[in-house]
Amino acid sequence: MTIPQQSSLLRMSTFRLARRLRAQKSDDSVSDAQFAVLATLSIHGEHTLSALAERERVSAPSMNRTVNCLEEAGYLARAEDAIDRRKTNISLTASGIELVEATVSKRDAWLTERMRALTADERDLLARAAELMGRLATQ
Amino acid sequence: MTIPQQSSLLRMSTFRLARRLRAQKSDDSVSDAQFAVLATLSIHGEHTLSALAERERVSAPSMNRTVNCLEEAGYLARAEDAIDRRKTNISLTASGIELVEATVSKRDAWLTERMRALTADERDLLARAAELMGRLATQ
DNA sequence: TATTGTTATACTCTATAACTATA
DNA sequence: TATAGTTATAGAGTATAACAATA
């Protein structure tokens, strides 16, 4: 198999699996865009609005709106920066942490159940592949 | 490593790689939702509106709107069904086929370039993993 | 009566341009 | 003057409810 053929296979399988995983949510009231923000705050901690916009590759006004919705729903909180008063520091509330954990658990449970149907060798192969995929994505 | 740990690794890497791949487009004027429709028509051929809505898991009015945009942009065409005149058959135009091929090429080129940095054994491992991921997604 | 597609309406996500407050 | 955040406005994607045409 040529390298382009291998790439094409990996691209298709990655999209299909990501799509199935994304469908596993713990709460339908939060959109994909909103959940991505909560997940980013969960993994990388407190962000200013513009840092969050840059990381999610959307405009600041767009992120501002999404943050407004999430703040209103009680999943995150804004706090004025003590030093630079133009900035607002955005972080998860207890309720936001809970929602991220519940969704991550649901997705992992869905995948774990399907991985039990594989052999130990196949699971090991997938774990090693995951490490390589991470490297490809950050390259 | 436990099965849940393997699952969690695979989930994170899949999302990261899918995100990077999705960012590789050949034309910024077509949204993700619109491109997904074009890709579905490219892979699975002609669809009625409701078949398309069901496959993309959105409502019929939502799909109708997306199809309107794509029709106006000239990427797909509606045709009346000869037998059942309630139905409209939706298929890609030459321009639509071209756009799908250009985007797929760009994504594959991006991934192929990064896979060249791996060893032959690592690429082979990823190709076998892709097959397993496809199986997990359809299970 | 049921199905297919569409229109009406409303809310979220997206963007650019313009504004406010602070540095 | 520059930067961080926000508001104004407009276009696209999502949904449910209601409608027209056809089976």
TrEMBL record, chains A, B:
Pfam families: MarR
PROSITE patterns: HTH_MARR_1, HTH_MARR_2
Domain HTH marR-type: 1-135
InterPro entries: HTH-type_Bedaq_tolerance (IPR052526), HTH_MarR-typ (IPR000835), Tscrpt_reg_MarR-type_CS (IPR023187), WH-like_DNA-bd_sf (IPR036388), WH_DNA-bd_sf (IPR036390)
Keyword Flavoprotein annotated: no
Keyword entries, A-Z: DNA-binding, Transcription, Transcription regulation
This protein's name: MarR family transcriptional regulator
